[in-house]
């Protein structure tokens, strides 16, 4: 009877969400404030409620609408245990379909929403392209991209035009880099970037998020089909040449979609928010500008401190288990708050303080376990190249005089990938 009731409630919830979406109503408005709490911040810091949740119980019941049973994981040790566990937990998108009522054809696939053995097969195909040796060939190109953006910023300033670090620096660098990696034409980036950004912003509504997934996949299927005829020099062309018979068009589009959205929005947010850290902390500014080797420690601490991907891919229990002394039932959802876990005092002392000289920590900014971000080293390359170049070219960089304070900037309100939408600056 309980199982039947759950199915009926789920069916009714899905029908209601679909009805609201068709009428242009935002399904997110159905969520109580506490359900959005893991996606909220005070400036650069997770909201105090996340810290309080961790102190109360790092594995905490997290009730959601329509009878969905979920648990919020806020402790670092517990988060690593969930992310590192392969038995009894699933990332399969089908579980989310059952919860959100997503129609067929909108499955983003790729690595994040796939379980072994399919996940193992796909990751094995991609891993050789993300070794340090393979990525090293992109190093000179990343340097050219960064320098090109700095030149463009200088030209804007010389013409008396406003300079926005998000628009003119933080977004184009990873966009160009990931398009270079995949072999996607850069002149097509604007439309896809908009789809990538929108899928992470829950104020657009659940229906819009999944519509954007469908739109980006449709675009990438066209790219794949063109490259099957004439494979390019990027990763897509390489996969088609070496594994074209093993991967169909949908699989290739899903892999590309995961890499492009994962590598674009996250790195763009890191570059912009990291610049805010530098603007508010003159000591870090001078350190990164003047000491070439300091950027490595700075970037690692920045990754921990900001943790822009606020929650990991949702996981679902496929069997009863115990986590942190709490009984988890089969079918329950687990939401891992990466931002809370990386501010856990069990990970580092004084976790709320940004310390660029702190020894590297086993942070979770890139996740952990089999779903750890495959592009982590590429992201590090971008950050380590971009920050020193920015500060050495513009050693007097500061917030634009008419932009108010750093706290006044347009931070995203409820986004899985946290960020800021604009950062106006003066170069001199």
From TrEMBL:
The keyword ATP-binding does not apply. This is Cytochrome P450. Keywords: Heme, Iron, Metal-binding, Monooxygenase, Oxidoreductase. It comes from the Bacteria. It holds the Pfam family p450. Belongs to the cytochrome P450 family. The keyword Heme applies. SUPFAM superfamilies: Cytochrome P450. InterPro entries: Cyt_P450, Cyt_P450_B, Cyt_P450_CS, Cyt_P450_sf.
